Amino acid sequence: MTTYFNYIPQSDPPLPPWETLPTMYDLPSDNPEEPGLPDDFHFLQPLLLYLTFQPINWNPELVYSAADLNLYYDLQHPLWYKRPDWFGVVGVGKLYKGQDFRLSYVTWQEPANPFVVVELLSPGTEDEDLGRRIESAADKPPSKWEVYERILRIPYYIVFSRYTNKLQAFQLVGGHYEPMNLTEGRLLMPEIDLSLGLWQGSFRDIERLWLRWFTLAGELIPAPTEEASAATQRAIIAEQQAIEAKQEAAQSKRKVEQLAERLRQLGLNADELDELL
Does residue 59 sit in helix, strand or coil? Predict the structure, then answer.
């Protein structure tokens, strides 16, 4: 007589969500139909923000920022994304999992959401950037404002227009964006010991009003080229000061020698002259 046993397979423990959900390698990293009018300013302004985003109270290795990179935000709709002109994150390494350049920023695969987002107004995106667009249907992606405010809860949202040089800023307060006030012309972000403001100056040989990072006290955070230029200027000044000091010393010595010679002519003791020299 044959005995049959019912075999019940043991199920493996469920995998953590970050191992089963799509990663940046699985998701599209561009969309040629994305609205907006990219121009030189949309390249240079985010570059200046990128170069000067240096939170003083954070390890530089745990500070990340990006421009024009897909930002995936919704687990229920993993293909939905926004593409900020620039955003900064703290507490996140510069490489994805410490190994690879990012193709996109996939929030469910990252340890932190963006801390600050900057949008540069274009005629085609202004209504959405400023939250004027009517809330979308359940099966349509929400606006940038809704994503930054309600879903990702990004603490600071900045909007800047190069056409009017108007700066608008919003801070997350009680789950909603509230307009921020300027302090001495800057937007203070004490959590990262930085402030953001407008600066009239030349960047990449273009003179205009730029949006850039300052310390809380209002000192400019220099871009690497500015820092190198300042170091070169300091070296030139130091060298010039050294030359002037040598010239002054030589001139003083000549005066002493002339005085000594005059005293000798008057018959003073040579030993006294040596002490004088």
Answer: coil
Strand, helix or coil at 183?
Answer: strand
207, 179, 184: which is closest to 196 by C-alpha? Answer: 184
What ranges do the domains of the chain cover? 17-221, 231-276
Q: Write the DSSP string, 108-171.
A: GGSSS--SEEEEE--TTTHHHHTT-SPPPPTTSPPPHHHIIIIIS--SEEEEE-TTT--EEEEE
Per the CB < 8 A criterion, the answer to whether 24 and 78 are in contact is no
- Half-sphere CA count of 120, side-chain side, radius 13 A: 23
Whole-model pTM: value is: 0.74
pLDDT computed for residue 35 by the predictor: 54
Beta bridge partners of 214: 195, 220
pLDDT of residue 5: 47
With CA atoms as reference, report the closest residue to 21 among 100, 78, 81, 102.
78
pLDDT at 273 over 70: no
Distance (Å, whole) CA 188 – CA 78: 34
Q: State the Cα–Cα distance between residues 112 and 142, nearest whole angstrom.
A: 21
Tell me how far apart the alpha carbons of residues 254 and 248 are, in angstroms, rounded to a whole number.
Answer: 10
**CATH T-level fold of 17-221:** tt1808, chain A (3.90.1570)
Bridge partners, residue 105, by sequence = 71
